Predict the 3D structure of the following.
Amino acid sequence: MNDKLKQILERKGPIKKIGVVGMGYVGIPAAVLFADSQAFDLVYGFQRDSGSSGYKIQMLNDGECPLKGDEPGLEELIKKVVSAGKFRCTPDFSKMSGLDAITLSIQTPFKDPKDLIPDFSALTEGLRNVGANMSEGTLVVLESTVTPGTTGGMARRILEEASGMEAGENFALAHAPERVMSGRLLRNIREHDRIIGGIDEASTDRAVELYSPVLTKGRVIPMSAMAAEVTKTAENTFRDLQIAAANQLALYCEAMGINFYDVRAGIDSLKGEGVTRAILWPGAGVGGHCLTKDTYHLERGVRMNDGKLDHPPGGESLFMAARRINDFMPRHMSKLTVDALAQVGKKPEVSRVAILGWAFLKNSDDARNTPSEIYRDIILNAGAEVKVHDPYVTKYTGVKISHVLDDILDDADVIAICTGHDVYTTLDPEQVKKQMGKDDPVIIDGRNIINADLYINKGFKYKGIGRGDKNEH
Ligand code: SAJ
């Protein structure tokens, strides 16, 4: 173990004062949970006083939650720790001096989703601010999802340059990836196991000391920083892979004229000690800000060690193939649409398509990287007129989204269900057909949420992902 750092930490004593950089949907719950713990005395939330997010500073110091959406218990907890004087939000980075631990929860989006190069600019600015203000013996923790190798590479270099100190000697450095989902922020932090990876043993131990007090059901899982970075990116890569396997099998079932969902029920029935078949669900595509990027972080990380990778020559990575299959699904949706129109003697350029669902996830208003957009662009390029309905999403750059279903169904030739919102499961085929006003309406079920026979018996031309048994009815 690195004795110098160990001695510095022992001299400093237990962690009491904490800083959290980035007051977003990860940083805010993390900061107030630290502040609510008896183990710690004071937490600063650091937030740039920028035009786009500076408003959060006053809101938080007034005990209000600046996050959208319902986060059970969060606003009450903010009020509690602010009034107890245990949490304050500030744009003054000089207050980082003397803190025992500083975590960074800063988004790492892509500059352009097309080239999949992460935009680390906000993270590097945060690291520079921490390096310039932190004291000897501080523990620095990255919570953002990063390309494997970042903590011990770029982050370490920036912190050392800005502080003039040495990681592992004068300060501790670790990665503890966030695993929170909107709507369950506090519960996720308290109950999920926490992956904790230091650049060395002393850093790992110090980070375990920081996170242990906020865990209720969750336990800490210590490992190296690189292993923690790979764990985070790979856990989403594996989910993306599982979804791609379901999508590929659904395409096979369509080609073979069988019902994927019968096959899925059959596969899923195989259970027993150590026997698992985590077969997920096919659909109109994979959106969101996790699964659409974490595979590329993982692949970029292994590319940095390219010389050591043994792999079938010329073979694409299994994980990249999975991304390609998932990103193909909106295209498959458009093929089902064009085929169905042709079967009723119509062409896309003279058709109206009603897209049902813009959010990337059912019963959610989150539309980040929504596959509905890929489908819409393809159908627009085919010449169709497109209208979009979503019960939750209010606005999306460049797309008019209606909350009134009747407006979208009026005179539509096609209904394309892209998001599995519950509200679409109870549509009445007879009423929908009347609203569309067509003798041969088309319905494309991208999320397997309607009863095919009900619509077919009412005169709809039906196509569904995975429904090889019905697509040629
Ligand atoms: N999807 C499918 N088939 C499935 C499951 C999902 O097509 O069987 C699609 C969804 O429609 C959506 C996309 O994949 O478009 C992503 O869905 P998701 O359920 O994975 O939701 P995310 O993207 O919010 O994933 C997050 C991740 N959490 C974090 O990164 C902290 C992921 O690790 C979680 O497993 C996931 O939530 C979850 O299980 O809720």
